[in-house]
Structures are given as structure tokens and as C-alpha cells.
Amino acid sequence: MTRGKLIRYALLPVAVVLVFWLGGYYFFKGSSDWQEVQSLLSADPAIRAKVGEVKEISVAPFPFMYRFSGDYVRATLRVTVVGSIGEHRATVDVERRSGKWAFVS
Questions:
Q1: N or C: which end of the chain has fewer CB within 10 A?
Q2: Mean pLDDT of all residues in the chain?
Q3: pTM score
Q4: Cα dist. 68→43, 90, 95, 97 in Å?
Q5: What is the spatial distance between Cα 75 and Cα 90, in angstroms, rounded to a whole number?
Q6: Per-residue CA distances from 82 to 26, 30, 55 (Å)
Q7: Please, which residues have CB within 8 angstroms of residue 96's CB and are 6 or more apart in sequence?
Q8: In whole angstroms, what is the distance from residue 88 CA to residue 46 CA?
Q9: What is the mean pLDDT of residues 53-68?
Q10: Which H or E run contains 57?
Q11: pLDDT at position 97, please?
Q12: How many separate helices (H) and strands (E) can be counted in the chain?
């Protein structure tokens, strides 16, 4: 396979998908949805029992899934929560229905 065909058929589609995926990730991190999810995580008694008072919450780019349709939003996020007594990493599934965020059970 020539270099031109390799770029056209393999690298270019991968680059396009990566750009769209990263765009969605950074869009979510800058959105009010992420701030609301942080509030939901900070208020969760199970998380507070593991880390104490929540100081920082970060979301990793892998795995990251964010789907929305009208007023319904669902996200799967890999988060790291740092608190006064420790740190906890978890993958959480959350959804927003009728404007309210909740954990997916």
C-alpha cells in the first residue's frame, strides 16, 4: 500500500473520528451538564464515605460517552474524586431526565 492510500483509507478516517470525539469530550467538560454531574457526585453519601469532603473531581477522556436527545442525556464517565481522606476512581453512568441528573442503576 502506498503512503497516499494509507493516509486516505486508514489515517484520515481515524483522525476525523478522533477530532469529533475529542470535540464532544471538551464540549461536555465546559458545559453546565458537567458542573451538575460534579454536584451530584459531591453530594453522594457513598462517595463522601470513601473520600471525605470532596475537593476535586476530574473526568478522563477514556472511556467517555455522552448522548443527548431533546431533554434526555446519558453519560458514561471515568471520574477521579479527590477528597480530604482519600482518592477514588470509578466509572459512573448518569442520566438527565426532565432537567434532573441521577445515577443509572
A1: C
A2: 89
A3: 0.78
A4: 24, 22, 9, 10
A5: 13
A6: 21, 20, 6
A7: 33, 36, 71, 72, 73, 74, 102
A8: 11
A9: 88
A10: strand 54-69
A11: 87
A12: 4, 4
